[in-house]
Write a structure and sequence with these properties.
The structure holds two protein chains of two kinds. Chain A is an all-beta fold. Chain A is built from no helices and eleven strands. Chain A has strands at 4-7, 10-14, 19-25, 33-38, 45-50, 56-59, 62-67, 72-77, 86-93, 101-103, 107-112. By secondary structure, chain B is mainly β. Chain B has no helices and eleven strands. In chain B, strands 2, 4, 5, 6, 9, 10 and 11 form a seven-stranded mixed beta sheet that branches. Chain B is globular and about 40 Å long. The interface between A and B is medium-sized, with 26 and 29 residues.
Chain lengths: 113, 116
Amino acid sequence: QQQVKQSPQSLIVQKGGISIINCAYENTAFDYFPWYQQFPGKGPALLIAIRPDVSEKKEGRFTISFNKSAKQFSLHIMDSQPGDSATYFCAAPSRGSQGNLIFGKGTKLSVKP
Amino acid sequence: EPEVTQTPSHQVTQMGQEVILRCVPISNHLYFYWYRQILGQKVEFLVSFYNNEISEKSEIFDDQFSVERPDGSNFTLKIRSTKLEDSAMYFCASSRGTGHRDEKLFFGSGTQLSVL
């Protein structure tokens, strides 16, 4: 119940295309869903996040779509660029105290020029 | 933007040895964390620290692990007797401490620990 399942494991997209990464969860108590972006040699950095009271959140080319009934949320990267090539992690807060995040296994995105 | 800094970037040690991983959190942050990522696996929570004490720890954080804030700027993770399975990238993180579950975490670049 505490897991967050992420797919695909890797993704190759042409420049200008749409990248879509999916996550599914089981615990209906989860109330915050961040996406973290990690470049090689760096730590994860918060990219965008959503709360379950909205179905979509958009920040620039990045959009989170949230389906509460299906217990799924996804990251869409519009007009993907080579600079977006990174590993993306979805996450949800554990039932514990703040900062205890349960991460998905990550998706390695490669955007080809 | 302020950063969380970690030293060293790579640490190689022999099994059974003690290691200390060091972190300097962002200066006005109140919560500090350690996470780890075994190669090819997901990032896993180890421990959170607030007001000079552990606020939460995972099952991974057993008696071999300890954390300390020895002064006003550093935050350390000590592994007393390293095992092969402790080999991983260890990330330090910090947050402002709003008390909300949607707290934004700022991660350092990590220390790659290799236990031989």
